[in-house]
Amino acid sequence: MTTTSGDDASGIPSPGRDHPHRGPGPISARMTPMSPRMTPWWPDLTGVVTLPSGRQIRGRGLRGGSTDVGPLPDFGVYLTARLHEERWPSRWVAWPDFRLPRTPSDAIDALREAYDRAATDRVEIACDGGTGRTGTALALLARFDGVPAGEAVAWVRATYRPGAVETPWQRRFVRRVPLSV
Fold this sequence. Notes:
Blueprint: E1 48-50, E2 56-61, E3 75-80, E4 90-94, H1 104-117, E5 123-127, H2 132-144, H3 152-159, H4 168-176
Parallel strand pairs: 2-5, 3-4, 3-5
Antiparallel strand pairs: 1-2
Helix pairs in contact: 1-2, 2-3, 2-4
Region (Disordered): 1-35
Pfam family, one: Y_phosphatase
Protein name: Protein-tyrosine phosphatase family protein
């Protein structure tokens, strides 16, 4: 392993090198109970949901502003009608507002990747407003984590936002979509 000035042989940055909002230096130095490689989301950061397994996912609205507060995500899934890109690794899912994904299998594949990465990385899910599509995606992540399909919408409304999963067809999608691609 290569170390940089100020790091000890373990690769953990020495005091003073940590960025106040983005966590410690290199990814190899990030720590959480789930993985020795990452820093968890701040516990009081708006939109962070802890799945029953302990995985944490941040949901947010892209219109709500930048990611200047709190650590940056290691991976994101962006649910928008038009292409959305970030400066960190991410997936874009074509998903118009108040509707369902244009290609459900692409959405399930991207969400499965997000779920798998959440075991070791900070993952965020975002749409324009952060409620309907993001809530739908978080409910599907809860299903991946073992929450029964019929309870996933209520679970995400209790743990994320009361109005999450806005439309009847989004609620039906959460209950009925197969989680395998």
